[in-house]
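Support request, priority: normal
Reporter: lab tech (M.K.)
Component: structure prediction queue

Hi team, I submitted a job for Anion permease from Limosilactobacillus fastidiosus yesterday, and the status page still shows it as pending. I've pasted the exact input below so you can check whether something in the sequence is tripping the parser. The sequence length should be 473 residues. Please let me know if I need to resubmit or if it's stuck on your end.
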Amino acid sequence: MKKLESVNYKGFIWPIIIGLILWFMTPIKPAQVPVAGWHMFALFVATIIACITRPLPIGGVSIVAFALTVLTKTVPMEKAIVGFGNASIWMIAMAFFIARGFIKTGLGRRIALNFVKAFGKRTLGLAYSLIGVDLILAPATPSNTARAGGVLYPIIEALSQSFGSDPKKGTSRKIGSFLIFAEYHGDMITAAMFMTAMAANPLVQTLAKGNGVNITWVGWFLAALVPGIISLIVVPWLIYKMYPPEIKETPNAKQWAEDQLSEMGPMTLPEKLMAIIFVIALVLWIVGSFIGIDATLAAFIALGLLLLCGVLSWQDVLHETGAWNTLTWFSVLVMMAGQLTALGFIPWLSKTVGSSLHGLNWVIVLIVLIVAYFYSHYLFASSTAHVTAMYSAFLAVAISANVPPMLAALMLGFFGNLMASTTHYASGPAPVLFGSGYVPQSKWWSLNFVLGIFYLVVWIGIGSLWMKLIGMW
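Reply from support: The job had stalled in the queue. We restarted it manually and it finished. Here are the results:
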């Protein structure tokens, strides 16, 4: 006898209660906030809370939210369905498929092993080499969880075991703790450096466009370049000093990597084709705005080439559940976030908050908004959910307070990634790496608190000055 699928019905309690309370708090004077705008706000908040309480997987939550949005006549079907045609969301899905090529062909693993072989003589150098692989893969891998968890974590775990570092034996600190924590931060920094390095980044582009700010792939990269490089250089060293490994020299790492590469054999044709198509995609993303090729079209071209060359099969595409899952729930959440603006809620909120900040220097306003945005992440278990919930509102408030629009849009975009330096549940890679058992929760939180301050200083301070220097505001 077949059983019903499990549903966490208790997880619906808080979303329903809070959603209904907000729904029935609709202003008496709809001239301030249109009734439909307030109802959209109630549905949106309930949906975000449900993404946290998880009565269903996030895709299931989004489908229920979509149905309620149309059923309550808050948004007509012809407008609600438009979210599924959003170009940025399709770019995310395409990039998921491209990332599958790295894993399927083994190219990602080969790159990582070659970096270990070349730079792994010391433990600190080993960390830099692993983060270097993350940096190379980041532009074409919109899932930082796939990079950290799918490509690099298995290598870090095998390396740690080869040096006798095992949390089950109480030897985590030999080398594993440092490598795990360094890779977590490296993954987070690379996610902030490229518009295509984390699923929520293209969403930022879409939401920013709704506020009149047009972010390009090249613009994002150039703005993040200097604070990103500084972070990639300094953060692993800071971790090395604050949480040093017991083993400082790793001469065996080179031999271990050589043995692993020997087992893999020479570079295969699928790997070579994957490398060539990856370079093509990267070039198109960089020069696309100059030659009239949209970033989403570039991703479609890359996937088409992978299919034509036989690197991926259509079954690979169909079985890439992460891409289809993201496409579904992103489309719904983007539609809801967009309707908050279209139905008047975000303009009203930004005007209200902006008037309360009237008279304050815009620099102070930007710092206050980013700090609030950053530390509110303790309440979220997903960077994407956080960006969806708060980005548009914070950007609108910043612009209404005369913060340069591009500066505000990109800073909030960067910190949509960097705010993962808070908890062990902050983003997709966190449960994977924390769950390995190498770093205790107390250390994860205390070290992250210190590094969080570093990110705020470097990215707001040096990042803003760099963006001014290159004329972005």
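Residues 160 and 176 are 5 Å apart (CA to CA). The longest helix spans residues 441-469. Let us know if anything else looks off. Ticket resolved.
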